[in-house]
Design goal:
Number of helices: 14
CATH architecture of the largest domain: 3-Layer(aba) Sandwich
Distance between the termini: 23 Å
Order of helices and strands: EHHEHHEHHHHEHEHHHHH
Strand order of the largest sheet: 1-2-3
Number of domains: 2
Bound molecules: tryptophan
CATH topology of the largest domain: Rossmann fold
């Protein structure tokens, strides 16, 4: 569909508070990705309403997410960045795919089980069919690869099953997508419980460093990071706290563990934590500056959304029309 270029597609929840884990593990590498693939990134506002949202917050976060992605280096001239609700084909294909997805399959989704336990007062049908909308997102663009976190792999596998089933009945409709799960080596752990992954929804604000945290906050959080009772900056089994800080420092500076050990030989944890905090804050400063610039220009962001939606719609329309024709829907010209 794109002159033989492979398609990479990913969806992101409209949430402005992404962490340095998201930054180091994913966002920072997006621009290199766009050299090899035709990339589409969608802000999935329709997925977001499967749990209750405050309208003003959802709207603001949609802008913020777009601005943050651009601030991290996604160039809208090279990749398609758009908002899900701006391309109506997503929900139209979702209805169709609902008729090719089994109740039993959706019942087995771990995220559904987790979310319905967490939101026991609102186990709505949208929460249940969430993976079908996600499958539509992916399949509309004849996607080859889907970069996702490990928690979303099951959904991509379901998407493959749905597409395979559909293709068996109506040959050559969809490309079968492949999940790409980012390397576990990029795992950034919580600063207060370094055996747990750093999560944007952690209740302890000291455990997480957000991309948009200011310098003082970042330094304070690193100072408070949990470490062991040893004093040497050394990467070793069992030293989860220090290992995590060293990994973060390595990611930001490109230094190896040996280089870091040499740099801090004879210095204590205090000096090291301060260095990690300062390095992290300095690396994020330009991202934050660009973010503020983009957020200060709502009209500019809206123009980007519009451009992205037009690019996406063009492809989505073609796939949907192919699907409807195969199904036997009457097409008016
Ligand atoms: N469900 C994904 C998440 O919560 C977001 C998402 C929606 C997505 N549609 C997608 C990811 C399509 C990849 C492809 O993270």
């Amino acid at each position: 569909m794109f002159q033989n270029q492979k398609v990479s597609y990913s969806g992101v929840q409209p949430s402005g508070n992404l962490t340095i884990g998201n930054y180091l593990g994913a966002l920072r590498n997006f621009s290199t990705y766009s050299e090899d693939y035709k990339c589409l990134y969608c802000v999935v506002d329709q997925h977001a309403i499967t749990v209750r949202q405050v309208p003003a917050d959802l709207r603001r976060r949609t802008y913020e997410t777009l601005a943050l992605y651009m601030a991290c280096g996604l160039d809208p001239e090279k990749v398609t960045l758009y908002v899900q609700s701006h391309v109506h084909e997503h929900t139209e294909l979702a209805w169709i795919l609902n008729c090719f997805t089994m109740f039993g399959e959706l019942s087995r989704m771990t995220q559904f089980k987790d979310k319905s336990a967490k939101h026991a007062d609102n186990i709505n049908a949208g929460l249940f069919t969430y993976p079908v909308l996600m499958a539509s997102d992916i399949l509309l663009y004849q996607t080859d690869v889907v970069p996702v976190g490990i928690d979303q792999k099951q959904h991509v596998e379901l998407c493959r099953d749905i597409a395979t089933r559909f293709n068996a009945l109506y040959p050559d409709t969809f490309t079968i997508p492949e999940p790409i799960v980012s390397k576990s080596g990029m795992k950034i752990m919580s600063l207060s419980e370094p055996t747990k992954k750093m999560s944007k929804s952690d209740e302890n604000p000291n455990a997480v460093v957000y991309i948009l945290d200011d310098k003082d906050t970042i330094i304070r959080k690193f100072k408070r990071a949990v470490t062991d009772s040893d004093t040497e900056v050394r990467f070793a089994p069992g030293k989860d706290g220090i290992n995590n800080l060293m990994s973060i420092y390595a990611c930001f500076t490109g230094k190896s563990m040996e280089e870091i050990e040499a740099e801090f030989a004879g210095k204590g944890y205090g000096d090291f934590k301060l260095a990690v905090g300062e390095t992290c804050a300095d690396a994020l400063a330009p991202v934050q500056q660009r973010f503020a610039q983009y957020m200060g220009d709502k009209a500019g962001l809206e123009a980007q959304m519009k451009k992205g939606a037009e690019e996406a719609s063009y492809i989505a329309r073609r796939t949907l029309s192919k699907v409807e024709k195969k199904l036997g829907f009457v097409q008016l010209r």
